[in-house]
Design brief:
The structure holds 2 protein chains of 2 kinds.
Chain A lengths: L1 E11 L2 E12 L3 E5 L6 H9 L6 E6 L2 E2 L10 E4 L11 H11 L4 H14 L15 H14 L4 E5 L7 H16 L5 E6 L2 H7 L2 E6 L2 E6 L1 H6 L4 H7 L5 E7 L4 E3 L4 E2 L11 E7 L11 E11 L2 E8 L2 E8 L9 E4 L7 E4 L5 E3 L7
Parallel strand pairs in A: 3-8, 3-9, 6-7, 7-8
Antiparallel strand pairs in A: 1-2, 1-4, 4-5, 9-10, 11-12, 11-14, 12-13, 14-19, 15-16, 15-18, 16-17, 19-20
Chain B lengths: L1 H31 L3 H5 L15 H6 L9 H31 L3 E2 L2 E2 H10 L6 H13 L6 H25 L3 H9 L4 H12 L1 H17 L2 H5 L8 H7 L7 H27 L9
Antiparallel strand pairs in B: 1-2
Classes of the chains: A alpha+beta, B mainly alpha.
């Protein structure tokens, strides 16, 4: 019981927007599609909804090809990045709209709409027009309309991206609870934010330049990104990468910095690699690297530092709010057992830190 | 202090403009109750005090002593303007929706060129069209008929309707169409159930423009009709004979603006009820 995309391809004037997308989206699971802007996430959702023209390939729902069905005959609900509601209808009628198209009885509609309004926390707002609501409330109305239909396929296209930080975190939690309740539907959620994908997704699909680079559980994708590109997409702040050489004695980075090798690198032939480290795994008490602060960013309760070090640019994340003046000298420890090793040519992962080795 | 000054200046400007706009109407109103002596005897404004009011001007219009008939041109004008406006709005809305939502391409001609083609119909002076229209209506045996005038007015009004509505539809996000389709509407259903209700303000504005342009046209009403079908503007001008009957002209002018004033009031009531305000973010 699943939705399957087979060789889905979209070329626009020789530029591939989607390229050979083969993916299975299972019923009762939430799949988070993560990728940067223009990775093809929206195009993929629009293809599934039937809104994208000139698509090659096939879509199968439970083994049945439905590529030829027009949007209004597919059972697909969608929540857009922009808060799209029917401007002329009040909240109640907005949510009832798809139910009315299915000719459901008035009392059934009333019961369903009231129920969903309670779930999204908008009871009492029935007679408001969308323009009289805040952005977060508008997006809740859009979600309520999509949920209320009990559609086979529920698509959410970066639904939280246009909201402010605080509201985004709050709605992220709410959305998870609401979406988990829909156990029989195929739910696909696109995002650019790793935290969102990891929190929401039972499964994570990583897209880049119209292709799927990796698919798996959040832990798989996060702990064993198949390439530098995937590691870059699923880490925020991005994973720092340094070119260097590995030999029997250890790792020699540029700028004369050397660190010892960790057990997970044991089987690797000596040679040149690129070494990656997550911002959260650098220690502020160590003394492997010295760098000057280029840029500091505080988001919520975490501080991200961007350093210029002898071996390249480095992103460091610290718990709590810290203030560093521009140009301040910072010492960081580079724990070798948390270092990813990528092929210096192809960028493919050759060794990942052992799970649980902290 | 500056705030007060600003308010005083603002209201002064409003009052000045109101005087400018309203005075001609007041003047027409007093004149319509004058007789020939009242008009020629110098400028007078206040009835009973400065001149003796009379209903002659109004009597004349409705087949009084002079036998002028304003009722038939009035009905003709209403029929011709209303039908031409209605047809233009319906066709214009449909055309504009197509131009806004679908991509057409005939050779090098694309949507934007088609829209410009519509607007270009209003760029050339109407005089250019007079002779072609005359010949075409003659060939169709539609000269001096209401149908002929309706056809000509559609040519004049349709571009206005298309132009306003294209702009309006372009401001309604395409995602609303898509969402309506995902919610179970066919493309036509999405247009009728979602796009049309949201374009009501635009349709009303376009309708107002059509009514005003159609109602006020003198040139085509004058060149394409003779005796059978007279429209209000030509009828009013034809009141003018060796002696200009200012009192009748004034009365005619007043009743000729009445329908548009009425429509404007209705629309204003409708708009201020808030049904349309803020319909689109």
């Amino acid at each position: 019981m699943s939705l399957e995309t087979i060789d889905l391809t979209l070329m626009c004037e020789a530029v591939p927007h989607l390229q050979d997308i083969n993916a299975v989206f299972e019923r009762g699971r939430l799949t988070a599609v993560i990728g940067r802007t223009l990775a093809g996430k929206t195009t993929l959702l629009r293809s599934i909804a039937g809104l994208q023209e000139r698509i090659e390939g096939r879509l199968e729902l439970d083994g049945r090809n439905f590529s030829a069905l027009p949007p209004w005959k597919r059972d697909v609900a969608m929540v857009y990045q922009q808060f799209i509601n029917y401007p002329h209808l009040n909240v109640y009628e907005n949510i009832a709209f798809p139910l009315r198209r299915k000719h459901q009885a008035d009392d059934v509609i009333r019961r369903k709409v009231e129920q969903i309004l309670t779930m999204v926390g908008l009871s009492g707002f029935e007679t408001r027009k969308p323009s009289e609501l805040s952005g977060g409330q508008q997006q809740r109305v859009a979600l309520a309309r999509a949920l209320c239909r009990e559609a086979d396929i529920l698509l959410l296209d970066e639904p939280l991206v246009n909201l402010d930080y605080k509201l985004r975190e709050q709605l992220r939690e709410e959305f998870r609870d609401l979406l988990v309740a829909r156990t029989d539907a195929i739910v696909i959620y696109t995002t650019t934010e790793p935290a969102e994908a990891m929190l929401l997704g039972d499964r994570v699909v990583v897209m880049h330049e119209g292709r799927i680079l990796q698919a798996g559980s959040p832990a798989e994708v996060f702990d064993r990104p198949v390439s530098e590109v995937v590691a870059g997409i699923v880490n925020d702040p991005p994973m720092s990468l340094f070119p260097g050489a590995l030999d029997g004695r250890g790792i020699a980075l540029e700028g004369g910095i050397s660190i010892e090798a960790a057990p997970h690198m044991a089987g690797l032939p000596p040679g040149r690699y690129r070494f990656g480290i997550r911002a959260g795994e650098l220690r502020m008490d160590g003394n492997t690297l010295r760098g000057r602060v280029v840029f500091t960013e505080v988001s919520g309760s975490e501080t991200s530092l961007y350093l210029e070090t002898p071996c390249g640019a480095l992103a460091v994340q610290r718990e709590g709010v810290h203030v560093y003046p521009h140009g301040a000298l910072v010492h960081v420890g580079l724990p070798a057992h948390r270092v990813f090793v990528f092929d210096s040519g192809t960028g493919a992962l050759v060794a990942a830190p052992l799970a649980g080795a902290n | 202090m500056t705030g007060n000054l600003y308010r005083i200046l603002k209201y002064a400007a409003v009052v000045l403009w109101s005087v400018f706009v309203v005075t001609p109407f007041l003047w027409a109103l007093t004149t319509s109750f004058k007789t020939i002596n009242g008009v020629t005897g110098g400028a007078t404004y206040i009835p009973w005090l400065q001149y003796k009011p009379s209903l002659d001007g109004w009597h004349n219009l409705f087949g009084g002593s002079s036998g002028i008939d304003i009722v038939h041109p009035y009905i003709n004008s209403i029929i011709v303007t209303a039908s031409a406006s209605l047809i233009s709005i319906v066709l214009g809305t449909l055309a504009a929706y197509g131009l806004s939502r679908f991509d057409y391409r005939v050779g090098i001609v694309k949507n934007g060129d088609l829209v410009f083609f519509f607007i270009s119909q209003r760029i050339m002076p109407p005089v250019v069209l007079a002779i072609p229209f005359f010949l075409m209506l003659q060939w169709l045996h539609l000269l001096d008929t209401r149908l002929g005038l309706v056809l000509v007015y559609i040519v004049l009004l349709l571009p206005i309707a298309v132009w306003i509505m294209v702009d309006f539809f372009n401001n309604i996000p395409r995602q609303i169409n898509e969402m309506a389709m995902l919610d179970g509407c066919t493309p036509l259903g999405a247009f009728v159930r979602v796009i049309l209700p949201n374009s009501l303000p635009g349709i009303i504005v376009a309708g107002m423009f059509c009514l005003v342009f159609g109602w006020n046209d003198f040139f085509f009403a004058f060149t394409l009709t003779f005796t059978n079908v007279q429209l209000l503007p030509t009828a009013i001008v034809s009141l003018n004979s060796s002696v200009t009957p200012w009192w009748s002209l004034s009365a005619a002018a007043l009743i000729s603006v009445a329908p548009l004033v009425l429509v404007a009031f209705l629309v204003e009531r409708f708009l201020s009820r808030g049904t349309l305000a803020g319909a689109i973010r």
